[in-house]
Amino acid sequence: QVQLVESGGGLVQPGGSLTLACSVSGIDFNTKPKPVTWYRQAPGKQREFVAIITVSRQTMYADSVKGRFNISRDNGKNTVSLQMNSLKPDDTAVYSCNLEQYWGNGTLVTVST
Question: What is the DSSP string of 34-57?
Fold first, then answer.
């Protein structure tokens, strides 16, 4: 069974950086790589797309994070990372990763003084 586990969230000051990780089990990215997407849901708001990385490592970002966030994958470690720089209070949300119909439980990122 495929499982996704996010990690790396926490409290950071505006302008700071965090790197989130999405660890995938139940599938071997070395033999069956899959696209992985990061989403986020802020308090009181709907879940929104953040970034996606394809099998061929093509990437796409939401306009709100373009130029500040970077998504990458390590197939050997079955992990997809989201490096977040120049964080703003509006980036505060629960960040979740998605692979086909599978979702992780999310990790909370809080950007505040």
Answer: --EEEEEE-TTS--EEEEEE-TT-
| pLDDT digit string, tens, across residues 27-48 | 999 999 999 999 999 999 999 9
Tell me how many degrees the CA angle 110-112-113 measures, rounded to the nearest 5: 150
Place of tokens 């997407």: 37
| CA neighbor of 36 nearest in space, from 47, 51, 26, 14 | 51
Do β-strands 10-12 and 107-111 pair in parallel, antiparallel, or remain unpaired?
A: parallel
- Classify strands 59-61 and 3-7 as parallel, antiparallel or unpaired: unpaired
3-state secondary structure of 12: strand
Q: What pLDDT score was predicted for residue 75?
A: 95
Contact 84, 18 (CB under 8 A): yes
Half-sphere exposure of 40 (CA within 13 A, CB side): 23
Contact indicator for 62, 82 with CB cutoff of 8 Å: no
